Task: inverse folding
């Protein structure tokens, strides 16, 4: 059995695509997958962020506080539960993540809807930093979202611009497990291929 941890920032669209692929590819197989939190806001603390990315960084911090509080109060699986309910609203439907949307997502995840108020609570930044630090320790360096750790071997990525087909998804996972557990394998990187292709809609057809 292979132990796989995927560290994601909930606002990262690449991580959303990767998480959908990984969970589907691992279903019913010999791999155990856990979703864990990292923070692009904490990663970029002290850096000059361009105006185009600043809203995402601010959203990362606000939502990161909510996820950190949910995990702290309801256990580690609360992160994945909230990610499952908030992710489609953010990445598929393109909803503006305001307090009302947070309350709905928390409720659908079986979590306390009052946690929505944590988005504006800066005292949670210490816990957010702690959870992010765990992702960097697992990687063994500094890296963004997503980070995959396979049987203790950490790598940046995988970065997917679209979800693999049902045929290719499990094959990709098997290939990654083979690469990650091969002694001496260090990295595989390709130049930026553009944003992920996620169909968005303003209709509330969930």
Result:
């Amino acid at each position: 059995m292979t132990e796989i941890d995927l560290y994601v920032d909930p606002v990262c669209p690449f991580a959303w695509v990767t998480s959908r692929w990984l969970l589907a590819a691992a279903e019913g197989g010999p791999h155990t997958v856990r979703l864990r939190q990292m923070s692009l806001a904490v990663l970029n603390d002290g850096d000059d962020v361009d105006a185009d990315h600043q809203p995402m960084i601010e959203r990362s911090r606000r939502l990161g506080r909510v996820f950190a509080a949910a995990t702290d109060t309801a256990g580690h699986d609360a992160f994945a539960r909230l990610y499952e309910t908030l992710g489609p609203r953010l990445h598929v439907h393109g909803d503006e993540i305001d307090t009302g949307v947070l309350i709905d997502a928390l409720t659908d995840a079986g979590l306390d809807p009052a946690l929505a108020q944590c988005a504006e609570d800066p005292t949670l930044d210490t816990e957010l930093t702690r959870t992010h630090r765990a992702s960097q320790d697992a990687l063994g360096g500094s890296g963004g979202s997503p980070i995959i750790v396979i049987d203790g071997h950490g790598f940046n990525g995988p970065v997917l611009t679209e979800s693999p087909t049902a045929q290719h998804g499990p094959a990709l996972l098997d290939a990654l497990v083979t690469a990650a557990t091969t002694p001496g394998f260090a990295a595989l990187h390709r130049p930026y291929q553009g944003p992920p292709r996620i169909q968005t809609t303003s209709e509330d057809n969930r």
User: Anything to note?
Assistant: The longest helix spans residues 54-74. Strands lie at 2-8, 31-37, 147-150, 153-156. The helical segments are 13-26, 40-43, 54-74, 77-92, 99-108, 125-139, 168-180.
